[in-house]
Amino acid sequence: MVIAEDLAKQQRSISVAEFFEKNKHLLGFDSPTRGIITTVKEAVDNALDACEEAEVLPDIFVAIRKTNSDVYRITVEDNGPGIVPKNVPYVFGKLLYGSRFHQIRQSRGQQGIGISAAVLYAQLTTGVPALVISRTGADVRAHRFELMIKTETNEPDILVDEEIDWDRTHGTRIEIEFKSTLAAKKKLLEYLRYTAVVNPHARITADIDGEITVFERVSSEVPPCPKAILPHPHGIEFGALKRIAATNSDTLDEFLVNCFSRVGRKTADEILGLAQIKPRRKAKTLDSDELKRLLEAMQQVKIPAPPAQQCLSPISEDLIRKGLEKEVQLDFIKARTRPSAVFSGHSFIIEAAIGYGGKLPAEGSAQILRFANRVPLLYQQGACAITNCISQVNWKSYGLSQQGLPVGPALIMVHVASTNVPFTSESKDAIASIPEIEREIILVLQELGRELKAYINRRDRNKLQDDRARAICSIIPEIARKVSDIVELPLVDTSPIEGKIMRKLVAKKRTCDGKVSIDVHNYTARELVFTLYNLSRDSASDAVPKPDFVDDFDGEYNKVWKCRLEPGTVWQVTYSGTGDGSIDLRGVEDNVKVVVDLDV
Amino acid sequence: MSRKEMDARAREQLVHIAHGWYDQMRDGLVPFIRLPTRTKQNIEYNDESEVWTYGEKESMRSANSEKSAIHLLKMAYVIGFLKQQLAEGRSSTLRELYYISEGWKRAKFGAQDESNRLIEDLEILTDLQREAFHLRPEEDGAAIFGPLQIRESTQRGVREIHCQENVGEAGYPIPNNVDTLDFIDHDAKFVIAIETGGMYARLMENGFDEEYGAILVNLKGQPARSTRRVLRRLNEAMDLPVVVFTDGDPWSYRIYASVAYGSIKSAHMSERLATPQAQFIGVQPSDISDYNLPSDKLTEQDVAALKSELTDPRFATDYWREQINLQLEMKLKSEQQAFASRGLDFVTKEYLPNRLSEMGII
Q: Which residues catalyse the reaction (chain B) (predicted)?
């Protein structure tokens, strides 16, 4: 028994701060490079949440400066509502302190660990306290704090608390210094860019070692701040039920109606009937067995889904599109917001977008952008339910090659918005495999896949048409010349082929021996009115017929002819020149016209 | 047929293709051509001629896409060029044709494979050989050594040559155009076509031609068309049996197949080029174990080639199935020179005489 007593001497409780000091990786501080990104991410998330709560358009400044060889100073400043001075030390100097943990609504931060973990990480590597400046309005002065965390007790250690003048009327600024490197600069900018994509109402200015990048806002509407809702009977667990029941003085029927969402009198009666507990009993008098029966009954009764519109704030199809278009050049983009759905009583909404072409790399896997509650997920892509769902979709049937992930110039974005995003770990890098969520993701991807397929088909059809037009209008006449030459017969007229195949308005430009000729055939069945634009270095002063209008700028002449053409007839203009430049037909729908430049 | 008549026929056939397009365009049609599909899946055994030729599958090439239109344009340019070449009584090589296309702008060839293939298309469409268009291959023909007397009309007049007495160690080189060649007389019992120069020299040095009345033909690997044509004529006109002696590996079996059955690429020529009576003398996969020949392991490509031969209609006989499966089992291959491991004379004194009498040739 001596051993047990020896052991007992060593046993003591540990504070949460101590725990995370030893387990930094759980919070995303597993390496100095990642530390910077995690710190910026936590501070920016907090800033965006705060601005939304105060209905302010976020204007966020991020700076990273090297102070000496391996120490970096990270600054994040926002124009949010600020934090009341008495709370500042707790928000930044105490782990697991926050306003959003007990609320059921969509928010970026949850447990109040992130930013204080950064403060902890700073004091661990450099010993430099965190600097916080906060001002809550024009009529009060700003407060400047220097803070550390007492790890043994997880309590803030205030080194300085003074009032200062600050040029911002409201907002918060945090400066943290720790050992790091800027190796992950690209990833950091990526994080900020993706943050800008899903927060198109925010302006983010980054100053990384003197290099300034601005992610401008494309929307000037603050998204409605999600409102907290009561827990849903299907999402509650025994411990939580026991806790809220113990502090409640209502009768059971009132307790169910007042403390849970979507429970009315009728539902309450149904639950209590099933649980065989009298409605007039007081909630706090229930014993464990009765609570268990109550919980079971709550799960069994059919209850409408929680009010998603109230507690969730999806980005919306329109803003996803705008956000992506602003940061990535694409030929095609489509976004979808699914109707809200539920897993274990928690509301969620899946949004997704698919982009194609533009400047996306043609080779390699499609780019995948993952988001949870408007926060980009940068790490552990392979472990994430989103990635898993993307590989499960059969992209080949939507026009993309596929090797697990789709391959080609495509971008796939998925946003999971929920009152409780099921992350695989505290560092919030990957979403866990929840069947209800995976089902919704796959459905939205399939919807978007069909849109992509339609786009690709349309594009291929257009390409095929262009290809055909080129063949018919430029190569076949060349074949005709050669063939007529070989068989020693007069040049065969290929215009009937053009007419038959094209049924269009065909404009052809050709230059031969210093003469430029442009002819326009109307192969359609109706009279067409069109305008021919010819931009080139040729002044075309001897043009027959004369242009209706000539514009001269920088040695280039834009010549314009207005024409009216009967079906089956030809209009032609010739002039002396080199035949450079371009021609264009306007005033006719795209699907009716073909422009062929035989000089190219 | 005189040279002049042949040229006129070639010209007529080529212009005929262009005429077809001219008529199509005059009738308001997009010009097109039809050609047999040139794949392993589309070759058929012709009972009458006993060779493999293209089957019924046809592909149509119509100028209604940019790619196909350019293809027809290239063909029109080539026809124009060949017509002119015939008119001027000149000739060129396949390689030269490829370079000539440099000046054809859009109709220029991307690689020589492409122009070679187009010429083969023209052969199919005109039912003529490219020599008729005055197009020469650039590689040498193979060589002949043995009791055979020939007459060749060369550019410097007519020459009579005896392939043992009037030639050097290398033998008589077969010209590109064998239509200029007449066989006058011979004192031979059979023809042996040999894959490698080394084995050809061995047979010559050992006097195999004299001892057995053999005409030796050095195939130099995959034989040129002119070599195959000569083998066919020796078999057909002179009534000489032909045996093919190659290495014991899958690529060599294809050399035999192209001599005996015709090649997939020139199946349109099979009736002129193939010698259906040609027999395979070795190296047979069974020889590797029977004579315990030095051997190499089959590579992955070898195995794939053997497996592909099992689905090739030209190898669909009991003999070949047995030999190929045996080789796949042994996983070994041997060269013809491997017989030297049993002495320099083994091949001429033992192996070939044994095989030839087994095959009923001597």
A: 99 (o-(5'-phospho-dna)-tyrosine intermediate)
Contact yes or no for B278/B244 (Cβ under 8 A): yes
Please state, as a whole number, how many other Cβ atoms lie within 10 Å of the Cβ of residue A564. Answer: 10
- Inter-chain contact A479–B69, Cβ cutoff 8 Å? yes
Better pLDDT: A98 or A211: A211
Q: Which pLDDT score is estimated for A369?
A: 94
A7: in domain:
no
Please check if A320 is assigned to a binding site: no
Mean predicted confidence (pLDDT) in A479-489: 94
- Distance set, CA B181 to CA B89, B152, B177, B227 (Å): 20, 5, 8, 12
Residue with tokens 């306290």: A129
Torsion of CA A275, A279, A281, A285, to 10 degrees: 40
User: What CATH number does the domain containing A262 carry?
Assistant: 1.10.8.50
Going by DSSP bridges, is the β-strand pair A59-68/A203-208 parallel, antiparallel, or unpaired?
parallel
Please tell me whether residues A210 and A240 are part of one structural domain: no
Backbone torsion region of residue A273, taken as left when φ is above 0, otherwise alpha when ψ lies between -120 and 50, otherwise beta: alpha
Mutate: best of A466, A483, A497, partner B, most B CBs <10 A: A483
- Domains of chain B in sequence order: 3-136 (1.10.10.10), 143-358 (3.40.1360.10)
Residue range(s) defining the domain that contains residue A50:
16-215
> Using the beta-carbon criterion (under 8 Å), do A486 and B73 form an inter-chain contact?
no
Q: Is residue A478 part of a domain?
A: no
Nearest chain B residue to A489 by CA: give it.
B22
Measured between CB atoms, which of A476, A487, A497 is closest to B19? A487
The reply to whether A457 sits in an annotated binding site is: no
Q: Is residue A462 part of a domain?
A: no
Q: pLDDT class for A1, splitting at 50, 70, 90?
A: low
Q: Which residues pair with B216 in a beta bridge?
A: B145, B192
Judged by CB atoms closer than 8 Å, whether chains meet at A497 and B76 is answered as no
pLDDT per position as a tens digit, B87-109: 998 889 888 999 999 989 889 99
What are the chain B neighbours of A489 within 8 Å (beta carbons)? Answer: 22
By Cβ distance, the residue of B29, B73, B83 closest to A478 is: B73
Prediction pTM value = 0.62
Residue B264 pLDDT greater than 90, yes or no: no
- B195 appears as a binding residue in the annotation: yes
Q: What is the mean pLDDT of residues A223-246?
A: 82
pLDDT tens-place string over residues A31-48:
777 888 888 988 998 899
Is residue B99 annotated as a catalytic residue, yes or no? yes
Cβ–Cβ below 8 Å for A479 and B66: no
Cβ distance of A468 and B66 shorter than 8 Å: yes
pLDDT > 70? residue A100 = no
Ligand-binding annotation for A36, yes or no, is: no
Whether A500 has its CB under 8 Å from any CB of chain B: the answer is yes
